[in-house]
Write a structure and sequence with these properties.
This protein has about 325 residues and is of the alpha/beta class. It is built from eleven helices and twelve strands. It has one domain (about 5-20, about 30-335): P-loop containing nucleotide triphosphate hydrolases (Rossmann fold).
Length: about 325
């Protein structure tokens, strides 16, 4: 029997209201940006769930919703069987157990604090003594490869980008969390430093028994670090599956197109034409039915009329596409 999920997301939705003008007010109309629209997924204890998709698909908004940095329009986050924000799991206790590493390593650190104070600040807020917090900060600096004797008293501007991101990782671990959300945590680093930070993340995961939600545009990095991968398009989940299975046998047409964008090193297998054309639709007024049908090479009339549900292709691979739904009205002969 498999273990229950550590994080369970149910119907999570975030709509950002647009600023009304006089005309909208007279018509009592209020448009919204559908950044995340009724998504469901689980994160198993000890795994790394990679999240991929085009810019604007809702990856970073999902991360902020998981951390409760923004309030959801609808849906709920269940952590270890308890609803986040309930009496059983207050927000402060949830944030002690779930931490986040942001993309911008400079902006996410306070320039007025020394490195040791930045790392020790979180534990002190949660009631840990200053002495113990500083000792924990020094231990974590050592673990992330920054000697405390050299770096503890430095300020943010005195560090390189890779060093700052190591500090952010140490700060995220200072509260001894169970889950770490990494939102484009290595995308701003050059490749040599990126490799070092990725290996560091893998070592820390084993040492602290962590669970990761890893968001990135770099598909090769996602495949390297992830156990499972979730693909998002226009605020919705279109496919989830084991990393190797999803990369080797993508089911959803969007996933196939996304993976075809990975540059080939072999000159005999270079991409000659784009797998999909056009820009993603407007999230204020998304297409009816399947949101990908306006760009899908395998779309049929039914795709614009009926929205697919995220269902099992084969366990544990899930896909949201009418071509795999029984009695959906999709004609199998047109599958690309």
């Amino acid at each position: 029997m498999s273990a229950p999920p550590l994080l369970s997301i149910k119907g999570l939705t975030k709509h950002f209201p647009l600023k009304k003008n006089l005309f909208d007010s007279l018509l009592n109309r209020g448009d919204v940006v559908r950044a995340v629209d009724q998504i469901d997924f689980d994160v198993q204890p000890g795994e790394t769930l990679g999240v991929v998709g085009e810019s604007g698909c809702g990856k970073s908004t999902t991360a902020r919703l998981l951390m409760q940095l923004i309030n959801p329009t609808a849906g709920e986050v269940i952590f270890d069987g308890m609803r986040v924000g309930s009496r059983d799991l207050p927000l402060k206790e949830f944030r002690r157990q779930v931490q986040m590493v942001f993309q911008d390593s400079y902006a996410s650190l306070n320039p007025r604090l020394t490195i040791e104070d930045s790392i020790a600040f979180g534990p002190q807020v949660h009631g840990v003594s200053k002495q113990e917090s500083l000792a924990r900060a020094h231990d974590l600096l050592e673990r992330v490869g920054l000697a405390p004797a050299r770096f503890a008293a430095r300020y943010t501007h005195e560090l390189s980008g890779g060093q700052r991101q190591r500090v952010n990782i140490a700060r995220a671990l200072a509260l001894q969390p169970r889950v770490v959300i990494l939102d484009e945590a290595v995308s701003a680093l050059d490749k040599s430093v990126e490799a070092q930070v990725l290996n560091l993340l893998l070592d820390l995961k084993d040492a602290f028994h962590l669970t990761y939600v890893f968001i990135s545009h770099d598909l090769n990095v996602v495949r390297f670090i992830s156990d499972r991968v979730m693909v998002m398009y226009l605020g919705q989940v279109v496919e989830i599956g084991p990393a190797d299975g999803l990369f080797d046998h993508p089911a959803h047409p969007y996933t196939r197109a996304l993976l075809s964008s990975i540059p080939a090193m072999d000159p005999e297998h270079r991409t000659e034409k784009a797998a999909i054309s056009g820009d993603p639709p407007n999230p204020i007024n998304p297409p009816s039915g399947c949101r990908f049908h306006t760009r899908c090479p395998a779309a049929q009339a039914v795709c614009s009329q009926r929205a697919p549900t995220l269902g099992k292709l084969h366990s544990p691979h899930l896909v949201a596409c009418l071509m795999y739904e029984p009695d959906s009205g999709y004609q199998a002969k047109a599958i690309a």
